[in-house]
Amino acid sequence: MAIKPAYVKKTGTLLMERYPEAFSTDFEHNKELVTELTNIESKNVRNRIAGYVTHKLGSAAEA
To answer: Cα(30)–Cα(50) distance, rounded to whole angstroms?
Structure first.
C-alpha cells in the first residue's frame, strides 16, 4: 500500500494549525502527539506525519 505524500502533508499541516503550541522539533515527542491526536493505526503513516511536522518546524526555526 502506497502512502500519498499529499495525505501526509495535509494531515501534518492540519495538526500544526489546530495545535500550534503542542509540537516541537523533537521527533519522538511529535510521534506521541500524532498517536494521541489522530486515529491513525499504521506506524509507518504515523512516523511519516511526525517526521513531516518535525521537518517543517525545524526548517521554520532555522529561517
So the answer is: 5
